[in-house]
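Query form — protein Prephenate dehydrogenase

QUESTION: What is the three-dimensional structure of this chain?
INPUT:
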Amino acid sequence: MSEESAVPAHAALAARTRGTVRIVGAGLLGSSIGHALRARGVDVALDDTSPSQLRLAIDYGAGRTPREEDDPSLIVVAVPPDVTADVIQRELARFPSAVVTDVASVKLEPLRTLRARGVDLAKYIGSHPLAGRERGGAISARADIFVGRPWVVCRDGETSAADLALVEGLALDVGAMPLEMTPEDHDRAVALVSHVPQLVASLLAGRFVEAPDGSLSLAGQGVRDTTRIAASAPELWVQILGANAAPVVDVLDALAADLSAVAAALREPEAPGSRRAVADTIRRGNDGVERLPGKHGQNRRFEQVVVMVDDTPGQLGRLFGELGDLEVNVEDLRLEHSPGAQFGLAEISVVPSAVRRAVDGLQSRGWKIASTTND
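ANSWER: The structure tokens for Prephenate dehydrogenase are given below.
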């Protein structure tokens, strides 16, 4: 696909974003924003310091090359954290009438740097889409990675309503859910829900390096879920964690204390109070999971139905088709396939009221139910 390729003919509702959007940084987030905006008919000009990365993103259809006459209404800075402040400053100076936002995962450090330099920030609004994939680059970009995801917008007292509407309109146009936070609150929040989980996943996966092959052959979906994000790029995470070090350390210190308490209980499992300490740890985890937003951002509790699926073509499609016939909506899906087995397990999340209908209906159609939440 070339940069002159037509915008998809099926572009949906009219975009809130008007004019040209300039995206600086043609990696995963920048290119994904480009794909999502172009699908709505928005003119997207891509730029990147790497000519090969830029060419690749354009070839995949994320935007076009910049032109001298470009007069963007909105600029999205999607570059690594260590150069975010530099690029924001440059774009504000080059296009003084444009609103500039960035999608860096740390908000306070770039803001402090820009203020220390005396940069006029009247047209700058920091933001951060809570979306991504384990693999980066333009080749991994997708238009739908923002759908249903939060997009934090960090306004201040100088932000005009019109400028704020531009950034929030961008978030809505790509399918995200904009919400306002201060940079300080944002950085504390992502330390807990993003940055520390990355470290925990990496530390746990690091234990596999010297583990016997026999041990790893027992790995199931639980450990794969827990360590999925450990495949992330070290270079990027060194920058992210360094820029948000203090909030991350606060969470790590509290987590280390919790781990020490559990380890102490397990060193003497028969001692008074040890079993309770372990049970309280698991129960507190239950309570924490209950607070996580569910589908469509609601705190909902779903039930799981685990179905055995033969490892042959078309079986998943048949399963979904029959669930549709039963008027059972699949709220979430997790697949597990053990090496060497001729079947997989499809763990389907449904609302509690649909469990019996799903189980009875599937069994009557010949499906084998491995378990349900209440088993």
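ADDITIONAL NOTE: The longest strand covers residues 303-310.
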